[in-house]
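Q: Hi! New to this. If I give you a protein sequence and the SMILES for zinc ion, can you show me the bound structure?
A: Yes, paste them in.
Q: Okay, here:
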Amino acid sequence: MSEDKALCKLKSQNLKVIVNKIKDATERATKGEDGVLLPDNKESITELIKNMHRHLTKDISLSEEAEKTALFQIQSTCHPFKESLIKSLSEMNEQLEEEFSKSEDITETVNKLPTKPQDELFSQVFGCGQQCPFCKVPCEAGGKKHEKHHAAVHRPQGLGRYRMVDSEKLVETLCTTDVNSARKFRCAATNGEWQPYKEFAKIYPDWLIPPDYTREASDYWKYVLVKYNDRFAQEYNAKPADVPEAWRSITREQALNGLKEAFNIKD
Ligand SMILES: [Zn+2]
Ligand SMILES: [Zn+2]
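A: Thanks. Here is the predicted structure of the protein with zinc ion bound:
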């Protein structure tokens, strides 16, 4: 199916849902709260529209101004009015269907949408903008509202500027490994006091960093740290990290595969 055809189908489906909702609301609106059909006079039209308003309140916003103008112009009584309304709804449906089938440019449609899909996608992927206090991996919780920030794969902490106090070497271990160890950290947030990684939540209560017994850094981040160790050290005014020898044999391809593995991307 071409993209334009798929878009046309999607529009038709959405149109059907909307039209059915309005039809349903109109039918229901012809009855009062007691379930009795509204009398067939002009005054009932106000009641009918009020009822429609109530039934559609979640889906469609009707402007009061437009409502008043319409009411002023209507000369008919309630029942024929409702019939005409249903009829024009069907006509509008057909007309729109035809417009959709004349398949317009997909980009044009996307540009006309009130919420831009690219913005939605961006805010999902970008998340809340918070970064892990140790390794600076961005929070992956998605969207803005969540109780705790979290990320699937943490990085060697040196990439987030963490360094050994004495040697000034960048830290090559992951935060997830350290929160499962007896190691301690200190930083501005601890007022320079040593704090066990295990109790990081006392300092960073908004972050969920699960202790990891097994996982080492992904091949990707090992590769990045090996390759750019000196440059990170220079940039962060530190000494390069002590990377395990085995990390040096990781190839670019293995690194990229590690990334795909971590994010479940299949070729
Ligand atoms: Zn981290
Ligand atoms: Zn977050």
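A: Residues 3-112 form one domain. Let me know if you'd like me to explain how to read the tokens.
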